[in-house]
Write the C-alpha cells for this entry.
Amino acid sequence: MAILDSRVLQLIETLVAARLDWLAFELIEGVRLGRTAEESEEALAAARQSIRSDVQPKARGEPQVLLAKPEPIPAGEQVEWAAAYVEERLETALEQLQASIDALDFIVESTNEPEGPQDLAHAASAKTEQGTALVLLDVEGDRKSSREDVAGARDDFPALRAALAEWTARAGGQATI
C-alpha cells in the first residue's frame, strides 16, 4: 500500500470543493491500491481460443494465482497518475451522462408519441421549450444536469486538461514531504 503524496492532497481538496467527493474517494482508493497488473496479450489470446474451442481446460499441478499483486505507485509518480486519472474519469463520466440523457430523451419521446395533427404541433413546441434533465436530490441540494450542461462541460474540457497539466508541472517541482 502506497503512502499518499502530500502534493496530491491539493487535487483532492479541489475535487471536494467542486462537489466531486466521489472522485476524490476514487483517487485516494486508487493510490492506496496501486497499479493493477494487466494480462498479457498472449494470455488473453489463449483464453479467447480456449473459450471459442469450447474445450474444458484440464487442471495440471498446483493452482496458480491469476492476477499479480498490484504495484504501489511511488510518491514521485502519484501527481502524474492522479492528474491522468481525474481527466480520464471526468471524461468517462461526461460520456455516461450524455448517454443517459440520450436514453431518457428516447424514452420520453417514445412514450409521448403524437396521436393526431394537433398533438404533433404540441409535441414539436414542447420539444423546443424543454429538454431532458437529470436531477439528483441529496443532502447538499439539487444537482441538475441537462444536455446544455453536458455540452458546456465538454466545451470546457480543454481548459480542464490545461489546468491539470499546469498543476502537474507546478506540483512536480515541489519536494515530497
